[in-house]
Amino acid sequence: MRVSLTDRFCAAAKAVGRPQVDFFDEGTPGLALRVTSNGLKAWTLVFTSPKDQKRARLTLGRYPRTTLAQARTMALEAKGHLDEGNDPRDMLAGKDAAAMTVATLIPLYLEKPHKRTGKPRKSINEIKRRFDVNVVPIIGAVKLADLHRRDITRVLDPIKKRKRPIEATRVFEDLRAMVRWAVGQGYLDQNPMEAMEPPATAAPRVRFLTDDELRTLWNGLPKSLARSKTCQRIVRLCLVTAQRVGEVAGMRPSELDMKAATWTIPASRSKNGYAHTVPLSRLAVELIQEALAAAGEGAEFVFPNPDGNGSLPASAVARTILRAHEPDEDRPNGRFGIAHWTAHDLRRTAVSGMAELKVAPIVLGHVINHRSVTRAGVTLSVYSQYDYAKEKREALNLWAAHVQSIVQP
Fold this sequence. Notes:
Strand content: 5-15%
Number of strands: 8
Number of domains: 3
CATH architecture of the largest domain: Orthogonal Bundle
Helix content: 40-55%
CATH class of the largest domain: Mainly Alpha
CATH superfamily of the largest domain: Intergrase catalytic core
Distance between the termini: 67 Å
Order of helices and strands: EHEEEEHHHHHHHHHEEEHHHHHHH
């Protein structure tokens, strides 16, 4: 869309009905304000590169940090480089990279929206946490122009020494994605991580709780997590519903239909971006009713954060569980009294238990919203539109009854 850009227009511009919209400035050829559906705004310059005669795009900065006047000045400077036969990416971005550090690149990368939806990525907080903990303290001050693969190794070595192979792999993947993005945006001329091998990936976890462990965990929660009844309920709901801890912890009353005994996880909160309806067993309904009563009438979240800011984060639940695992002289297995487990192992326990109860794999796929199972191949993805709601309810009712028979014999 071509318009005469003004400061007022830029401040009010929105992407209506589309993931992103480009507003091209009538007075400055190639200059555009790109607006995404979640409100992010960036200045871009579209031009034909003199190197290969292909159309290219260069990001000039974020609005309003970079004003309209500054963007027009940068666009005119870029046009001067084009008139001299130079690619402005090599000139402008190279100048930026000389001053830019890893720490200043990270927030620019984190603002990058999801490719398909144009909205903020669901994993953005976790990526930011990994950068803040593992990357910024070690190589945050390194200039992009000086970034070398040995700097990546300096980041990964301490994580490996802590015996956190999965964390090391994820940090490597985060850095690799950011560096590739930086090259594509013109902040880096070449990829210093090219040909680097990721850390050795640990074998997938196969941990699930036995019936005896499940009984010990369930009945011991009032003591092992005595300071947080919220975490107690979340752990039990993860077991009973087979849903992810983040989805359970972020549950809203508006997602619940207690009369129909269903919980609909919206696409914006599900990991794969597709809405998911979870039938609620009687046991799940009881746990949710307890949580609603504790949250209070009119609460926005079923499990509100004690600090009053949103829902209780999944990371807080994971930290609470981790602290309860810490051993001491009297309790070598920590407060839970069983071998180490994680929140995701609860989901695996539920799926394994339902499989043992002879629930069909296709039904299990629908219960846990795994489209790799429910939509695998043309037949299931195109021709079969059955939602397996009845079978999902039967499976979760069967599992809940089995859990109750174990914990309350």
